[in-house]
Records
---
Amino acid sequence: MRTHKILRTQAFRIVAIYLAIFALSAFALVAFVYWNTARVLDRETDATIQAEVTGLVEQYQRLPFYTFTDVIIGRSVRGDEGLYLLANNNHRVIAGNLDSWPQISPAENGLVEFSYQRRIGAETQLRRARGEVFMLAQGFYLLVARDVDERRQLESVFQTALLWGTGLMILIGLAGGFLISRRVLTRLDAINRTSGQIVEGDLSQRVPEGHGGDEFDDLAHNLNRMLDRIERLLRGIREVSDNVAHDLRSPLNRLRNRLELAAMNQPPDSETARDIEAAVQETDRLIGTFNSLLLIAEAEAGSVRETIHEISLTDVIEGVGELYCPLAEEKGQHFSVAIPPSGAVIRGNRNLISQALANLVDNAIKYTPAGGHVAVTLENSGDQAVLNVDDDGPGIPPADRERVTQRFVRLESSRNSPGTGLGLSLVAAVARLHEGRLNFGDHHPGLRATLSFRRVGDEPRPAKIVTPELLPQPEPVG
Amino acid sequence: MRVLVVEDDLEAQRYLVKGLKEAGHVVDEAADGETGLTLALSRPYDVAIIDRMLPRLDGLRLVETLRQERNTTPVLFLSALSDVDDRIKGLRAGGDDYLTKPYAFAELLARLDALVRRRDPGSIKTRVAVGDLELDLLSRTARRNGSAIELQPREFRLLEYLMRHAGQIVTRTMLLENVWEYHFDPQTNVIDVHISRLRAKIDKGFEAPLLHTVRGAGYMIRAHA
């Protein structure tokens, strides 16, 4: 299962950090105890050896050499752990219970350590010993040592156990952390999945709640209560906006009717008639803005799901292209449409998508100078149908691209052009309604507005590329 | 013509009735669905204007009942509902046209005219003519004064719609809805550009223009000024 994801969970990280701290402190504690014990034992041995050496040196000075040799031989056969060796200045053995002068290596406290062979029955063992070398007068060497092989073996077992123990602890800890994280992740995944569906507009979803009463159940319960409340609030807003729609439309309707009736009673071209005409136009602008706002609100609330069908983007593009081509040509612009042979089928509301595309084309024509180009193209990229509207106009600075889709936002550069500041908001709302995207990019020069939708399939029809020649031609002048 | 108005907003109803009467129509009015249904079933009307939301009997139910009773009076729905789906619901219930409030009175009048004319049994024709302009609906060709006029398919549909409603005012919204099948307001008046192209094709070089602009309302094709 998603191992990588589990390793990145907070639960796993916490487990890993605690494990590291615990392993380190356990290791340090055991290592300290071991080191101290070993040191105390070694010191005891060292003291015994040093005392024995001092005693023997004293006897060497007191006794004749052959008697001293007997002392050494006597101690050698005593059969305890003591090791003795008396050698001449060429390390030739004179007396003692070692066969030859061993290869010695220095240890702490001026002592040495070495390995030696010991015969036990028929077997020979290589064992460790620790001792002191003393140079006697007349160039003789005296080695007094104790067998520490058992202690060294014990130490090595101890070290191995320490390493294995720490390793196992880390391994078991990690496995435990992995399992705990997976459990946490499973619970969180359920919550995340539900949240994702809710973000996509399905507010009826609820997070699964367990009956264990743990903190995840509490979280799920609270999330669900929050969602209930959001759903209630949204329904409230929708009711309010429906009521506002009704309550404002009716008076606007009466206002317009009243003005129209008043105009009927005036002689045409009188000053009053012109004033009324202007008032009617102002009312119409108000109505237009109002209608756009309501339409955006509807699209955002996703209340048009009933009229969503499989539609052909080719039809949408050709329809809008044909509607706007004459306008572009009247402004002296080159207008072109390019659709790949496969076309694209998407699920959507034909009228809303046409309106969204019309708004983009309308803007492109509005901001492109005479002689410029306006091009509408369809591209299929993976499971996306991508609609581009390119123009040669001034474009939108990258910093403003996010902002232009907000309601009533009009850029400084377009303040003097007609418009309500709602056109792109509607396009963005239509894109969101269809789970598509509206993006703005650079067309070098000009603007590339991109609408992308999830593609359902190809269009079952022959290849068709519409060029300006197939669209209504401008009349030759004269 | 005889018009039935079913509208619960009394002030809106008053202006509607007054405007219709001034336009020369005979008007009956009702303020709720039940009264409206009784009136619609008891007398013949040329057209009925019915608000979508009515007390006692909802506008949709009213029209559904009317159609069940085999009453074919053309119905124009008026609605303050903003839902995009509402138009579809209205037409599915048996309405013939759908106008969202607030609307222009000129728009309403033009649509009423179009609705009544549509009932005219003579409207299934293969040829339409206005003055010396003739349209052959089978071969999709146009001739004026005997000489052929080259038209793009959409221009043909535009001209056909105008000629089928010769002598009536046709609004820009009606053209957008019926010729282009769009139910939205283009930001720029693109229809005017299409009309001026069509005008250049059918009227250029002729003394008497056929395609007229009606200020504040729309367009009209007619033979004599």
---
Amino acid sequence: MSLKVSVKKRFKGFSLDVSFETNNEYLGSGKSMTLKCIAGIVTPDEGYIELNGRVLFDSEKKINLRPQDRNIGYLFQNYALFPNMNVEENIGAGLRLTSAEKKKKVSELVKSFHLQGLESKYPGQISGGQQQRVALARCIAYKPDVLLLDEPFSALDSHLKSQLQAEVLELLRLYEGEVLMVTHSMEEAYKFCKNLVIIESGSSALFGKTKEIFRKPGLVSAARLTGCKNISGCTISEDRIYANDWDFEIWTDSIPAGISSVGINSESFEIWDDPDKDLNVMECNIVDIIESINGYTVIFQNKNNINTANMYFDVKKEEWNNRKNKQELFLKIASDSLLLLK
Amino acid sequence: MTAGTKTKIPSLSSDKEIDMKLSPILISMKTASLAIVITFFLGLITARWIVKIKSEKVKMLLDGILTLPMVLPPTVMGFFILFVFGVKRPLGKFLLEFFSVKIVFSWTATVIAAVIISFPLMYRAARGAFEQVDQNLIMAGRTLGMSEGKIFWRITLPLALPGVASGGVLAFARGLGEFGATAMIAGNIENVTRTLPLAIYAEVAAGNMDSAMNYVVVVMAISFVVIVLMNYFTLKGRKYLYKGKVK
């Protein structure tokens, strides 16, 4: 597999300009690899990496700064705490200060990362969440220009995750620089990130503001990554879109050029109890209903043509149980919740 | 206690008292101690250097050369050392003429023999231990701005310590027991190059089994104490691992 990434963007106080290609074998779509290249842990085959106007890597000019000279904080997936050092020593490992200054700085960090009482414990003796805080404190102590987080919550139990996400969000406010986070969780991306780069099978597909991407993914791949379960190829005529996979016509205005697919988020359907049929209301043939903690996932097809693809409708329990017409199901696709995709 | 002192001690295998010279014990202790210090650091440095080499072919070749002293008969190594340091050889001649230092048949030769023969044990153990250290930890050190030297002394070496220490134990034991190469290049000169293994050989050759038995006991005692001590320090050095299990 080969990886090509091309990201050029100026952030406030931080500009990232990465474009490289590597032919190493690895799993995943290249998210972690991108971070590793930036941190200098992995050397890209060719390309160019610039941070705040400083060239970190340039294959043409044979520039390749050592990780030590890049001043980039990297939070490893498994935290990579030094098992032979206690919490205090781990946090102070990268500091080049006199021992008195170091002690002061470390005790400040211990306090702000809520690690009091654990100073002389070894990584093996503390919990996963505490280990993560130590690793984060260790990165931030070193005052990096940019902080890279490699799937920071993947090593944690799911019941701890949301609590720790909130904690980490708060701790990251202590850090003044920019943060680059790799995740495969849309939820994490939405919670943590202002800007988003979507990397699909090794190449960057999309770059933009997170909330905008979630609202208007624009690309089929982005829509899929933001969790859109209903995507269909389409043909366009003047004021309506025909969704091929659903054998269904959707009326909408202002269709931009080049649209090849449409998507509907599974939460965006509206149960249509009104006996008068409106535009964009589909009569549904229910295939299956899956119950989850807070609601149901209704799997259905267009009743007029049961050879069409399955569609997914996520609905709250209350809404589903209180629907008036329980014999039949009609769903309305609001034209403003329709995702027009290239 | 000076070299050559004779001590009256009870024989271990019969009830009559025998003479045991202390000089082989002293010479052996001095030789093995100095040899292990040299071997230890030489092995560490070499292992660190080999681990860093990127080309697998070069690595394999160098590893083969560095391990040879372990697999070749010690007499062959002794022959090679003679070949280098012999007074009629360029290096031996140079040392003799310009520094008036004669290596062969001197105490220094016992140390050289012990170092060369015990080196592969130290080097291989250290290399294996270094390669076992999680690369992520080394990378973490680098991204934290730690210099390569600091990473080695604060991360790699402490984490590799159990392996390194066991290599040290083996190398010390091998150095203490070195016989073949020592006999070739240092000879068996009483009070100068007669180490414990050579003394045992000499006593047995002279038919003094009682005296030989006493040296044997001394060698076994020293070896045993050293191994126990090393295991103890290894355990202490890895306290974090054992502590880590207590939640």
